[in-house]
């Protein structure tokens, strides 16, 4: 079954616009153990929402996972994995973190519960709710 994810990025380092320009990217730089576990669970075709951290704090666009996680070729540590993602469309309306936090249905979502986590799984029913909020 397809899975759904949020990938966080600091737009000053790599923004959704950068991903759109490049069409695809290696999602790297993840060192948190829990986030790495999530990366390893990703599979080709999984759907992704891209979240801009920092000042923006909003879901801004869509992407797709292009394949399973693999060891980061830029690092010597085999525990550090990456995934390749392809850019999708920008969201019709960005979904601010404040709006997500304001809805009690999202209380258990990692984006709300573990604010430092850069790779967050989304249950299908919450994915549909976020899609609706994004227009």
In total, the number of strands is 7
> Taking Cα atoms only, what radius of gyration do you get, to the nearest Å?
14 Å
What number is the mean pLDDT?
Answer: 96
Structure annotation, total helices = 5
Helix and strand sequence: EHEHEEEEHHEH
Q: What distance separates the N and C termini? A: 24 Å
Helix share, percent: 25-40%
Structural category is alpha+beta
Low-confidence stretches: none
Q: What fraction strand?
A: 25-35%
Taking the sheet with the most strands, its summary is: 7 strands, mixed
Coarse shape: globular
SSE topology sketch:
Elements: E1 4-9, H1 16-22, E2 24-27, H2 33-41, E3 47-52, E4 58-65, E5 70-71, E6 81-96, H3 97-102, H4 110-113, E7 119-122, H5 124-133
Parallel strand pairs: 1-3
Antiparallel strand pairs: 1-7, 2-6, 3-4, 4-6, 5-6
Structure, described:
- Strands 1, 2, 3, 4, 5, 6 and 7 form a 7-stranded mixed sheet that branches.
- It is built from 5 helices and 7 strands; from the N terminus they run βαβαββββααβα.
- The longest helix is centred in the C-terminal third of the chain and has 10 residues, at 124-133.
- The mean pLDDT is 96.
- Helix content is 27%, strand content 34%.
- It has 135 residues and is of the alpha+beta class.
- It has helices at 16-22, 33-41, 97-102, 110-113, 124-133; strands at residues 4-9, 24-27, 47-52, 58-65, 70-71, 81-96, 119-122.
- The radius of gyration is 14 Å and the shape is globular.
Notable features of this structure?
135 residues; alpha+beta; seven-stranded mixed β-sheet; 7 strands
Brief summary of the model shown:
With 135 residues, the protein is of the alpha+beta class. The chain has helices at 16-22, 33-41, 97-102, 110-113, 124-133; strands at residues 4-9, 24-27, 47-52, 58-65, 70-71, 81-96, 119-122. The mean pLDDT is 96.
